[in-house]
Amino acid sequence: MPAEYSSIACEIRNNVARITLNQSPLNIIDIPMMEEIHDALEHIQSVGDVKVLVLDHHGKAFSAGVSIKDHSPDKAGEMLEKFRGLFRRLNSFEQPSVALVDGMALGGGCELAFFATW
To answer: Cis ω on the peptide bond leading into residue 25 (within 30° of 0)?
Structure first.
């Protein structure tokens, strides 16, 4: 079972894995959220019977993008490495994935939604 998360929720039910962005209303993607998503993806891959991955959200936006605070010179390198790590992890999935977008998906949020449905 994955750890308890503060900025996402993760569940696996009936062969469907669901990661829900849970920093409403805008689901700004910050470094801690990236780490939680990566951890959840790692857990999902370790479960043998998952047939599909769903990326979902609470709030009025799928995501308004990556935190501006994490674009600062002292954090940008770490942020970019963690963000790229999410895409590498998603790319390693053999199962199909889908993003349920209702509302805004801007910047990095749009990239995440788009890549999930690639």
So the answer is: yes
- Rg value, the chain, Cα: 13
**Residue 14 to residue 12: CA distance in whole angstroms:** 7
Per-residue pLDDT of 103-115, as tens digits, reads: 999 999 999 999 9
DSSP 5-67: -SSEEEEEETTEEEEEE-STTTT-B-HHHHHHHHHHHHHHHHSTT--EEEEEESSSEEE--B-
Task: Give CA–CA dist 36/48, Å, rounded.
Answer: 20
Query: Model's pTM, two decimal places?
Result: 0.93
Are 18 and 11 in contact, with CB atoms under 8 Å apart? Answer: yes
Residue 45: what pLDDT? 93
Helix 76-91 to helix 31-46 angle, to the nearest 10 degrees? Answer: 20
